[in-house]
């Protein structure tokens, strides 16, 4: 019969997969992103990921950065801002600092995977250990989720300050939603794993009576 242990372990595994999806966003998988900046009336799109970005233009190959910790604003958006004659780079530093902090996505993924392994291979005290590690992974995922939202707003701030907000639209993408889903899985999975320790102890006591 399925118990707290099985549900908790499954949720930790699901969180790991979801965080892996967030981690392998562009430039690893160029069609997946955390946020997108699309030029209105144009077929060009900039996909922002955890480890870089890709510029996609219909009819030509994608131009992507290498996978790295932190990256600067794409030159295509800088050039567009310069064309307005009102260039303001106050948001550029915020964008670079935010993208550096996106390294929390793979960190949260790794910690979540460790929690899953311990939950899958342990009993009783192991469940407590798995729950504590899941709690750490949940905190990392929570900060990563906030950073995804911050990236969205600092991009919009840059566009607004340079008077190109009407030319470029920014939207959330799959990487943000998988991070949100992973946070929820870790939050619930942590409690299920902790409850597994209690139920396992009661089951052992019943076994000793008989």
From TrEMBL:
Q: Indicate where this protein is primarily found.
A: membrane
Q: Does the keyword Kinase apply?
A: no
A Pfam match: SUR7
Instruction: Report keywords, A-Z.
Output: Membrane, Signal, Transmembrane, Transmembrane helix
* Residues passing through the membrane, by range: 102-121, 128-154, 174-199
Q: Spell out the PANTHER family in the cross-references.
A: PROTEIN DCV1-RELATED
How does the record say this protein sits in the membrane? Multi-pass membrane protein
Stated name of the protein: Actin cortical patch SUR7/pH-response regulator PalI
Task: Tell me the classification of the organism that encodes this protein.
Answer: Eukaryota, Fungi, Dikarya, Basidiomycota, Pucciniomycotina
| Protein localization | Membrane
Signal sequence segment: 1-23
Which top-level group of life is the source organism from? Answer: Eukaryota
Cellular component per GO, a single term = plasma membrane
The question of whether Glycosyltransferase is a record keyword is answered with no
